[in-house]
Amino acid sequence: MTTSAVHTPRGPVTRKDVARYAGVSTAVVSYVVNGGPKKVAPATEAKVQEAIRILGYRPNAAARALKMGSNQTLGLVIPDSSNPFWALLGHAVEVAAAERGYALLLTNSDNNLDSERRHIRNLADRQVDGVVLASVMFEPDLLELFGTEIRSVLLNHASVAPGFNSVGVDLEAGARLAVEHLIGHGHTTIGLAMGITADNEADGREEGWQRALEAAGLPVGPLARGGFDRPGGYAAGQRLLAADNRPTAIFASSDMQAIGLLRAIREAGLSVPDDIAVASFDGSIEAEYSWPALTTVEQPVWEMAEAAVSALVGENRNEPPQHRVFPTQLRIRQSCGCP
Amino acid sequence: MTTSAVHTPRGPVTRKDVARYAGVSTAVVSYVVNGGPKKVAPATEAKVQEAIRILGYRPNAAARALKMGSNQTLGLVIPDSSNPFWALLGHAVEVAAAERGYALLLTNSDNNLDSERRHIRNLADRQVDGVVLASVMFEPDLLELFGTEIRSVLLNHASVAPGFNSVGVDLEAGARLAVEHLIGHGHTTIGLAMGITADNEADGREEGWQRALEAAGLPVGPLARGGFDRPGGYAAGQRLLAADNRPTAIFASSDMQAIGLLRAIREAGLSVPDDIAVASFDGSIEAEYSWPALTTVEQPVWEMAEAAVSALVGENRNEPPQHRVFPTQLRIRQSCGCP
DNA sequence: GCTTTTTGTTGACTCGAGTAGATCCCAGTG
DNA sequence: CACTGGGATCTACTCGAGTCAACAAAAAGC
Description:
Two copies of one chain form a homodimer.
Chain A: H1 15-22, H2 26-34, H3 42-55, H4 61-68, E1 73-78, H5 84-99, E2 103-108, H6 113-125, E3 130-133, H7 142-146, E4 152-155, E5 165-169, H8 171-184, E6 190-195, H9 204-215, E7 223-226, H10 230-241, E8 249-252, H11 255-267, E9 277-282, H12 285-289, E10 295-298, H13 301-313, E11 323-326, E12 329-331
The first copy, chain A, binds a DNA duplex (30 and 30 nucleotides) through residues 14-16, 24-31, 33-34, 36-41, 44, 59-60, 62-69.
Pfam families (chains A, B): LacI (PF00356), Peripla_BP_3 (PF13377)
Domain HTH lacI-type (chains A, B): 13-68
InterPro entries (chains A, B): HTH_LacI (IPR000843), LacI/GalR-like_sensor (IPR046335), Lambda_DNA-bd_dom_sf (IPR010982), Peripla_BP_I (IPR028082)
């Protein structure tokens, strides 16, 4: 028995072990593993493959990452991965990344700018090949954080930031679609439950709501601000219901807000859509299963995720920053008054 | 674009650059960065810190990972990160990992065993320090996949698997709590909407439902199986409503199922809880905002995530596999008939 | 004043894999 | 028979950071 030659290594199996077992040099092992830059004789290749199989060799990703300067990993920063909309976006990004052989590091900023900064730092330290930043906040100094080394793309940001790639939807057009639909149902007092964005710039959804009303010659209804989440919508709903000019229809800036809104309306003893019609923005699955099912402006989340990932890892990596704006689609259900 | 100090190297800044700039050896830089194994004179330390600051040095994580054999990363495998329950669990795991300085690689298995295997392989190749496997499926050959090198823990698994760490809840006791509560409301025909688990073993929730009924001397009501998700609950609901012995109360094995169930009940023109009372399992946020709000068996998700992560990275890393079972708590809302 | 001890610093090796450049071997040619 | 071409393979250096043995300088001890 050739015990010395067929010595089973103790720790994890390295390229060296495979080389020894197959009786070749470490270079050949690399060539086989990567279809490497040089050809290997079929017979040798077979020997190496066999050795790999028997020893259970798996190339060390850290070593490869060190040598190659890339670890085939992207980072994703979202405010709250347990919020269904972000969860969906995260899922889509993960799938888009996986399709290209990239893994996804997930981090939650919890809507906290400091935490967001920390996470971006951390991702940069980990040499990710790019960062998808999906955050409602935005501060220009983020640009410095990224430096020039690390690719990034803003996903689902309200505003277009110079110097950054971005992928988003036409918020204004989407909101207008929804509000016009509510107007079509004969409503004349249409309120807005608007989420809070970091920069106090008017969000496209707010503009769309306003313009649709103006275009129809209607007065601009009451507006309440709150978080984009369920509690935010609940609070905004309570304020809208207490307004002097109580609206007969409300447009909410996110599905989650609309769900909180529905609760506020129910607690006030009113019914949707008979007393108050509701439409919202996002097109998440919750909208379909709420009661009543929400009429909502659907974002093409999967396409957006695709676009974001390809901006980071695609051919066009070194082109100037791109801004892609996707169209939305009105998904009509019952909360607006349609049967 | 900012032009910085004179000594700015072209590529990414390495330890060597810092050493040169500060006029010390690379070893000292390491010592400073890590509070390293050797002491450094305060004056020298200051010089190095200054150099680090000025050059904007960030240690290369891949190199560190290579040397240390750990990249401070955990992997998470869940069926569908856009399902709110998994999303919540994922969030909790991410936070627990971050607290310990670990990043989280997120992967979706899409309830597909092959995909799950591929992802585990991939995570193993990436030398993660541990894998949290939260999947409804389970196949014993997973054990081999992990080999002995890589730590793992099963999170939220129905059954305890020998050789694996696991963290779960007492499904049977939780289900019993819920069903007993429905019995307390005077119901005598209580159905079950049960999710589908890979191994055909009876799930604890099914047993709990059955035992609670038997203990109360009640007949075992109708049972329908479907996915753990909303469509699954919807389909199961339709079948339960069409049953000969139509139940007046239904226990659902997940919140998502219950939400699908609510829809089926509404479409049948019935009301919850007046015509049919509902209770479910999980305790996710959707349960709170559904209509009516769901009475549900709450899982201590955050504690479970903590436990799972600490099983992977804690002191007790090298102890034999542990099985931790957490208690659940009945969260009473309106869907059961309580005011 | 001349050892010891302590403190601070450094050069050099290591982790595991990618790959350029050198080397080997053999078939084919003059 | 020597000579070249070319395919297959190997040697050796590289990536960036951790850390130990070795060493220099300063402090303490007798």
